[in-house]
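Provenance

Sequences were taken from public entries as deposited. Structures were produced by running a predictor on each sequence independently, with no templates supplied. The record for [Ribosomal protein bS18]-alanine N-acetyltransferase from Sulfuriferula multivorans is shown for reference.
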Amino acid sequence: MSSLLRTQPSFRPMRDDDIDVVIAMEHVVYPFPWTRGNFHDSLQSGYSCWVCQHNQFIVGYAVLMLAAGEAHLLNVTIGLEWQGRGWGRAFMQYLIEVARDYHAETMYLEVRPSNTVARRLYHKLGFEYVAMRKAYYPARQGREDAVIMLLDMKKHA
Ligand SMILES: CC(C)(COP(=O)(O)OP(=O)(O)OC[C@H]1O[C@@H](n2cnc3c(N)ncnc32)[C@H](O)[C@@H]1OP(=O)(O)O)[C@@H](O)C(=O)NCCC(=O)NCCS
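Predicted structure for [Ribosomal protein bS18]-alanine N-acetyltransferase:
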């Protein structure tokens, strides 16, 4: 656990009735947020959807797609007022364990090149640069590329 984090985080599967809170956080954090439908469909599709809690409060959430021996992290978010306190690192470590329990050989994700906090965190957790996906994200002016990062689960057993 991060030295910053003084409270043991708890994680539980996301439920339909969490979506109101999740979508409110999503709109605060991202200029181009996921829609309610994106979260609803993720739950309906059986994706591995999680919330990170502090006491009774949801401080973050994540959506992980587990298929064909791979884990693909589609969304990981810590609420704005909770960021920078160690929750994101703890949540990522938990999600890596979820992927490991699924026996995923790799875990990959996309991140904006401009998102230096997230990129550094992923790098510290063992994710490596794989490639750039051109014009992947909507941006204020045109589109922004995505950096694809991959964690080789065998290397980080
Ligand atoms: C990226 C995100 C998940 C990280 O979670 P977090 O709780 O803020 O991060 P943590 O407090 O666990 O810190 C992780 C590392 O980043 C560093 N960090 C966190 N915020 C930082 C900041 N504003 N500036 C510089 N470094 C920062 C921490 O020092 C820590 O490094 P360490 O592990 O060496 O101590 C979270 O900030 C977030 O949800 N951001 C907005 C949404 C987003 O970008 N999601 C990822 C999309 S790919």
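The chain has a mean pLDDT of 95.
The first strand starts at residue 10 and ends at 13.
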